[in-house]
Amino acid sequence: MFDAHLHLRDARILPYHARFVKEALEAGVTACIDCASRPEEWNVEVRCALRVVTGFGLHPWHVATACPDWQEFLACALRADPGAVVGEVGLDGIRRTFDGGAAQRAALEAQLALAARLGRPVVLHGARAWGALLHALEPWAARLPALLLHGVSFSPDLLSHPILRRANVWFGVGGALLSPGAQTLPRLAAAIPLGRLVVETDSPDLFPIGGEPLVLGQYHALLNSPANLPLVLRALARLRQMSFEELAGQTAANAEAFLAAR
Ligand SMILES: [Zn+2]
Fold first, then answer.
1. Residues 6+ apart with CB under 8 A from 179
2. Are the CB atoms for 163 and 134 separated by under 8 Å?
3. Strands 147-149 and 169-173, how do they pair?
4. pTM to 2 decimals?
5. How many angstroms is it from 84 CA to the middle of ligand 1?
6. Model confidence pLDDT, tens digit, residues 105-157
7. What's the 88 CA to ligand 1 centre distance in angstroms?
8. How far is the CA of 205 from the centre of ligand 1 (A)?
């Protein structure tokens, strides 16, 4: 199984990596895209038994607190790892900012330009800002090798948007699918073309309903782990009337296709 979006360098789980990775492997997760989402994470080395493809990017939540020279730092991190992708980057409508999102848009623009220059696939965050994100992507979509919209949660009607109909766009469905009240996401997850669908946990965030918590040291919070990926796959397989194994294989192949597009 391929977890297409998580955060291995998150400070909350770094001291407990061995257990985090062991439980992922025991659950059958063998590969992941690990998004290092702020400058403090860009020079943290991760070596483990999982196949880890790194994303380097400034997450919209961290734009306001990033060091002034983050763009140079980011370009260095990406050049040092030719297999890395750009992400997660994007626009966010959950945490409102006083500037109406201007700083987020500028940071996104700079990172899309860098991804185009380096020819790297991009992992995108667009929570509650999908329309604005698609608008920002318009000048760039044709110049970027591949786009992965992670944690998708928009109306299935938006799938007909010209950018989302492009052959080099993939969609990440996560644990929000397990929420009993979820209505839009199940319809969207059923409508995404099979060849463009990937699955993700966004660990250690977004602990899913019914998941196994990773209760670590002083952090007695419910932290999510890639060991919960089979729950997402099981729900999605039921929804799409496919076998678990077939869907696990197809979504893993899709994640590899996204990474190979460059
Ligand atoms: Zn994330």
1. 185, 208, 209
2. yes
3. parallel
4. 0.96
5. 16
6. 999 999 999 999 999 999 999 999 999 999 999 999 999 999 999 999 999 99
7. 7
8. 8
Distance 202 CA to ligand 1 centre (A): 5
Environment of ion ligand 1 (residues, CB < 5 A): 202
Of 9-13, 88-92, 176-180, 214-218, the range with the highest mean pLDDT is 88-92
DSSP codes, 30-68? -EEEEEE-SHHHHT-----SSEEEEEE---GGGGGGS-T
* Ligand 1 centroid – CA 129 distance (Å): 15
Report the CATH number of the 2-260 domain.
3.20.20.140
Structure confidence by residue, pLDDT tens digits, 19-56:
889 999 999 999 999 999 999 999 988 889 999 999 99
CA of 185 from ligand 1 middle (Å) equals: 17
Tokens 């644990």 belong to which residue? 175
Gap from CA of 65 to ligand 1 centroid (Å): 17
Domain map of the chain by residue range?
2-260
Residue 10, pLDDT above cutoff 60: yes
